[in-house]
Amino acid sequence: xxxxxxxxxxxxxxxxxxxxxxxxxxxxxxxxxxxxxxxxxxxxxxxxxxxxxxxxxxxxxxxxxxxxxxxxxxxxxxxxxxxxxxxxxxxxxxxxxxxxxxxxxxxxxxxxxxxxxxxxxxxxxxxxxxxxxxxxxxxxxxxxxxxxxxxxxxxxxxxxxxxxxxxxxxxxxxxxxxxxxxxxxxxxxxxxxxxxxxxxxxxxxxxxxxxxxxxxxxxxxxxxxxxxxxxxxxxxxxxxxxxxxxxxxxxxxxxxxxxxxxxxxxxxxxxxxxxxxxxxxxxxxxxxxxxxxxxxxxxxxxxxxxxxxxxxxxxxxxxxxxxxxxxxxxxxxxxxxxxxxxxxxxxxxxxxxxxxxxxxxxxxxxxxxxxxxxxxxxxxxxxxxxxxxxxxxxxxxxxxxxxxxxxxxxxxxxxxxxxxxxxxxxxxxxxxxxxxxxxxxxxxxxxxxxxxxxxxxxx
Length: 459
Hints:
alpha/beta, AF1104-like, Rossmann fold, two-stranded parallel sheet, 42% helix
């Protein structure tokens, strides 16, 4: 059996600092290096921490148990390296993110070698840990930090954030122009359909799916040529006009006409308001953001919309990673985006001032999501609000993007407290996920599931 540790920038090659999440009785504290939190991480109070598993069957666990699947994921990560190269140069030239290409090259050499080793049938981590997809992604981000690469995608995130801020006012105006009486045939308010379409369109902007972005930006039909950038890579650099055009094209593609692959928009609408007498309306929501730029814009628009639907006593927490990972938005970037957006949006500004909309770090440092390891700030907010909104069927968890909702947590509803709803929002951007879900690349997922797990009374 081939046993190896991830390559290390240090002379010792010590990997003892890599601590995978360990399931233990509540309260659970997980120490993990690299994040911005001073203390340990805690489980989301809305899950059964003893039973929770972040893995999505056929994805995270398959990487650990099936050498062929692990090799396929390793190759997918190798295929993302050209995007890393382009973005590292871009961020170094823009002098943002603390990026130097020299440090990046050292990281890439070690990272590429490690992934090639991982493709071998008898490979296994020296630590003995199960090499789930979340583990693989965390090791990659640890290497980025260890080699001092900085935030490789900082320039890309900055520029796409500026484009999203330019688009934001017109989308707010369009949302505000929707009549409360405008409903789809199955009773979904037009404003909610639009907000969800913006979320799905924004989720297209994924550094791991640069070819897909390129196809939307450059193609008007299925048979077209994708432009090459100056480094010969397809669609890895889009100017601001193309980013805006890409979002508009993606939004048109994501309209609900004919329905989405998973389509629980009608169920979501009824749960937000309970106007049909189906039970208590949702009063608290925790939204886990994914990518920077248009995707973050979509999440802000969704939070804005559902707060308006839920009523004056409702609250939404928008959360983002504590540390950089690919082009995922960080908490600092989320704060900066919302601070700019509120100047053009009196609705969001009022929500922030009243405390109905709050921003919190998630404690995460990965493109996937471990609900068993959230920040102290988020844990404290949920715990405090549970003292006010004690009924779990008035709580909603929103998981945005493939990494947080498909590649991990696809069955999170099996581990949340009884009554808590879990909304999965994603555009499918890889063949691996499409095959698993019996779907096609670019299919959209709007899925709502409600937890049935009754927790033991530990008081």
